[in-house]
Amino acid sequence: MKNGEKSEVKPYIAASESIGEFSVKAVVLGSIFGLLFGFSNTYLGLYSGLTVSTSIPIAVMTIAAFRGLRIFGVRATILESNISQTIGSASSSLASGVIFTIPALFLWGANPTLFEISALALLGSLLGITFMIPLRSYLIVKEHHNLPFPEGTACANVLINAERGGAKALPVFAGVGIGLAYKFLARWQHLWAETVTANVPGLPRAEVGINATPALLSVGFILGYKISAVMVAGALISWIIIIPLIAYFGRTLTAPVFPETVKLIAEMSPAEIWANYVRYLGAGAVAMAGIITVLRSVPIMVNSFRLGAAEFRKRLAATGETIIERTSRDLPIKWIIGVVAGCVAAIAFVPGLVGDFTALSNRIVVAVAIAVFAFLFVTVSSRIVGLIGVSSNPTSGMTIVTLLGTSLIFYMLGWTDAIGKITALSVGTVVCVAASIAGDMSQDLKTGYLVGGTPRSQQIGEYIGALTSVVGVAYAVTMLNEAYGFGTTELPAPQAMLMKTVIDGVLSAQIPWPLIFMGAALTLVVELFGIASLPFAVGVYLPLSTMTPIFIGGLLRLLLEKRLKNDERLERCREGGVLFSSGLIAGEGLLMVGLSAYVYFVRKPDGWGDAWLGGLSGPVSLLLFVGLGFLIYTFARRHS
Question: In angstroms, rounded to a whole number, what is the distance separating the alpha carbons of residues 469 and 250?
């Protein structure tokens, strides 16, 4: 008899059909595209604190590459394309987890080696992928009509339309070329200023600005107007209200105000006021938003645990005579238990693999904490992305809660020295990668569910994607740090700075707790108004110049949707804009990783310089930025 899930959905490739799926060409192409987009997401996250899903652009580029290979007699099926995008997208989610935490180790002076970064990322990937496997039946199949998984569904539509002859890869490739060229001229050759700022008359130290870069504009278009508007609102409160208030009431003070110990507030620039005071307020806001996000997910967690445990029992009780349809086959339960047990044992018994504790008893506590938090947030992440998508997944909030929980445990055990801090952050890294890659994997499995892929093949593909990209992403992080240094204006690494602040705050007294609590209170007030608190809190924490281009990108998308309201072409146009925007992000990210390699191995390039523009560098930058917006809008309209 047949067992397994009974789906109400008829996949594009029926379960009874057997066509090519897991092949060498799919693995190679997915690994190559995975590295490229993994590099771009690494830079984007370190620069802006935000990352985006790459499944759709990788799927489109895979389709185009397979079509190009036809002239050599190479043919590929839709399921091979699905495996390729599954492998490729794994690297981007892995990068998201790494860049949110690892830079803090450099900021503490720990300077982790390439092996140490790779080991943390690999452990997180293995746990995230493995914990997600038993949840597939419930989240992807049984909850199909309740969880849309927006990127996964869109990616499936791209693959199916391509099979029917409707793929258009031009926007992605054009975006990569334009983004790369723009960043080469602006950052490598310094032909014009990338950041333009202006003071606000009548408000002391109030400053508005814009980082006129392709990536941030594109992030805004992908996120949409609502989220980008909430984010820029948080930033405006910081830079137009809070900073001027601090400057106004602090202008007469004759002594420095903690945590600053040298400069008077009256002597500080807007950026210095933000770094010394508003940054902590923003950290408190993000921490509270993360806690609220997790508390809201408690029913999801309980339900997922219950159904996940039921799935474990069901699979353990399955006999050898059970016949499972191809589209319902997962990796065996023995594999799941073995991988999790292996990871936990490695953390406990291999000194220096996670953190710097030498005592076995300390490492056992660390191993248990990682296992519990990873399983907890894998279930949350996998469910949340089903509703709001990978790009909006509050991974940073989950990581903050992990760091708070781990730091409190360490504090109660007296592990408050530098080793305790490094180990707490290492725990956060593993959990952050696990939650991030599990969210991406659930989107990929949704795509496979709709096109008729074999879950087991995709799950193996996720493992391969993590293995082939982990060293590359770790190396990119190392090179970027060597080239620019984390915490600088060129590479602020805002999420990692936030994680560092959280751990420092719990394990030491050298932090302005009143500012942290004020930020937390601000988040609670925003929640009372029914506003999404996490995007708002991120806006409070990040510079206004970062949020402004994101907001303009969201406005572009709103304009497109208003112009094509009730038009059947709207979805195709939106897709075209997203593809071109994804290409811009990839192009800029690739150029910056290439530039960091040049700086790392050769020297920092002098460039041409913007002196040839005189005082027009800022206006020219804004004009070119407007041109980028026009291109996004144009590619979106033409994609119909």
Answer: 49
Q: Which SS3 state, helix, strand or coil, does residue 8 take?
A: coil
Give the position of tokens 């900073």: 243
- Please tell me the total count of domains within the chain: 1
Q: How far apart are CA 558 and CA 224, in angstroms?
A: 7
pLDDT at 145: 79
SS3 (DSSP) at 332: coil
Predicted local distance difference test score (pLDDT) of residue 312: 61
- Structure tokens that stand for 359 in this block: 């005592």
H/E stretch holding 324: strand 323-324
Does some domain include residue 544? no
Is there a domain that residue 184 lies in? no
Tokens, residue 555: 């406005």
> What does pTM read for this prediction?
0.83
Condensed to tens digits (0 to 9), the pLDDT of residues 596-611 reads 888 888 888 888 888 8
* Torsion sign (Cα): 541, 546, 552, 555: negative
Query: Tokens for 267?
Result: 């002597």
With respect to residue 267, please indicate whether it lies within any of the assigned structural domains.
no
Identify whether 608 is part of a domain: no
CB 508 within 8 A of CB 416: yes
d(CA 489, CA 511): 22
Could you say which residues of the chain have pLDDT below 70?
A: 1-8, 164-168, 297, 300-301, 303-323, 387-388, 391-392, 509-510, 639-640
What pLDDT was estimated at residue 317?
66
Domain region containing 356 = 16-166+332-393+419-489
